[in-house]
Write a structure and sequence with these properties.
CATH class of the largest domain: Alpha Beta
Strand content: 15-25%
Radius of gyration: 27 Å
Distance between the termini: 71 Å
Helix content: 40-55%
Number of helices: 16
Number of strands: 17
Number of domains: 3
CATH topology of the largest domain: Molybdenum Cofactor Biosythetic Enzyme, Chain A
Structural class: alpha/beta
CATH architecture of the largest domain: 3-Layer(aba) Sandwich
Length: 441
């Protein structure tokens, strides 16, 4: 098959208003359900932010003949093909060889790749044995480029041929994702195959349902014909993406529309873009010079983990206590035994005691607690399964909130954590607004 030079490939694509992207995810483990196909959701999301929608994702097994057949079909339909997996050293890693056969390209050994693999072995105090399977990863297409892998041994591969682009990525997410964001996206943008920046404005909301959100926004959107509007619901949150599919509206217009929507939402507005609620809370706490501690029972550490997942959490997060038993609540949080005996561990009184207790024990300005019946057993009467109490200790006082979330145990726990963080978010935002009010006057 004739090779197309990179500049010729770019010219071929330049005349196409919407190039067709296809994703081939490879691996028996995906089809057996042993590994979730997170590559589809993540790559699809990253491309979507740049104005591209995947036309198709096909998941196939590791057999060379299956890979070759599917790649041949996709190569005949798509402008850009992205593959994931099958570039490693073992016998089931057949992607490179199968694709090379379809492209009519030879695989050539690259000493620089072998050295990079040896260097990575050395970082872990090991010596690479130059066996056939290790050296297998050091082969590249004779008319292609290498995408260096800073987090693994198998490099990515890039080929431009027949007016098409092929991107081959390793399977492990910690290797694929930085390679995609740091190398692949800039290359595709340079060739005009996606936008250089985000193609839409996203509004993140909390505490308002998808249908109600649409009802509230629609009068604004009606003033802008042919806007692209898309909603995406999460647990306790809804995102709204605003775009201009036909290019009628410039980005500043979209931003103005989004700002009008945010003003309408009031405290139900979380942020623009892709930051999560924890990031919003973290930024506010750092601005205020305030600190946070958490206490939790039924969520078993998920609340604390949400905050420690944030880079720089030590600047505001004092720590957390998982107090599952009554004894641990008394020992670590100073919850009175008489309170637990009279009201029970799943009660507004206990939630407040946990929140104020953890704040006092860890010297924090804010204390946030969760206690409840996550199910499938444990609740009864006024507190059925799915009952959650959230406690909040803040500079202005102590409060509690009761919520009910019917559903599987894992969903109840996730919803409880989201609700707790959202309540804290609203309080710290109010504090920031109070602090800024005298400056405004």
């Amino acid at each position: 098959m004739a090779h197309t030079a990179p500049n010729e490939s770019a010219r071929n694509h330049a005349g196409k208003s919407s190039p067709r992207y296809e994703l081939l995810t490879l691996g028996d483990e995906l089809l057996l359900g042993l590994t979730a196909n997170s590559h589809l959701t993540w790559i699809g999301s990253e491309l979507g932010r740049r104005g591209v929608q995947l036309a198709r994702n096909v998941t196939i097994d590791d057999k060379a003949e299956v890979i070759a057949a599917q790649f041949r079909e996709s190569w005949g339909k798509a402008d850009i093909i992205i593959t994931t997996g099958g570039l490693g050293p073992t016998c089931d890693d057949n992607t490179r060889e199968a694709v090379a056969q379809v492209l009519g390209q030879k695989l050539v050994f690259d000493p620089a790749i072998e050295q990079a693999i040896a260097d990575r072995f050395a970082k872990f105090g090991r010596k690479m044995v130059p066996t056939a399977n290790n050296r297998k990863q050091a082969f590249k297409f004779e008319r292609g480029e290498v995408l260096p892998n800073a987090n693994g041994t198998a490099p990515g591969l890039w080929v431009e041929q027949d007016g098409r682009v092929l991107v081959m990525l390793p399977g492990p997410p910690n290797e694929l994702r930085p390679m995609f964001t740091e190398q692949v996206l800039p290359r595709l943008a340079a060739r005009g195959l996606l936008t250089t920046g985000e193609a839409y404005v996203q509004i993140r909301t909390a505490g308002v349902g998808e249908s109600l959100l649409e009802t509230r926004f629609q009068p604004i959107f009606d003033r802008y014909p042919d806007l692209g509007i898309a909603y995406c619901a999460h647990l306790g949150q809804v995102d709204c993406r605003i775009s201009s599919p036909d290019g009628r509206y410039e980005m500043d217009v979209l931003q103005n529309v989004a700002q009008e929507c945010a003003t309408l939402l009031g405290e139900d507005f979380v942020c623009f873009g892709h930051a999560n609620m924890v990031k919003v809370v973290a930024d506010r706490l750092r601005e205020q010079g305030r600190t946070l501690a958490v206490a939790e029972a039924c969520t078993g550490g998920l609340l604390a983990n949400s905050f420690t997942d944030t880079c720089g959490a030590s600047k505001f997060f004092q720590g957390g206590v998982v107090s599952y038993s009554n004894e641990s609540k008394m020992l670590f949080l100073d919850c009175p035994e008489c309170l637990l005996s009279q009201h029970g561990a799943v009660s507004p009184e206990c939630a407040v005691a946990m929140a104020s207790g953890v704040a006092e024990q860890l010297g924090a300005d804010y204390g946030l607690s969760i206690t409840g019946f996550a199910g499938p057993t444990g609740g009864a009467g006024e507190n059925p399964v799915g009952t959650i109490y959230i406690g909040l200790h803040a500079p202005g006082g102590d409060w509690t909130k009761k919520l009910t979330y019917p559903g599987p145990r894992c969903a109840v726990k996730e919803r409880a954590v989201t609700a707790a963080i959202d309540w804290l978010r609203r309080e710290v935002v109010k504090e920031s607004q109070k602090a800024a009010a005298p400056l405004a006057n």
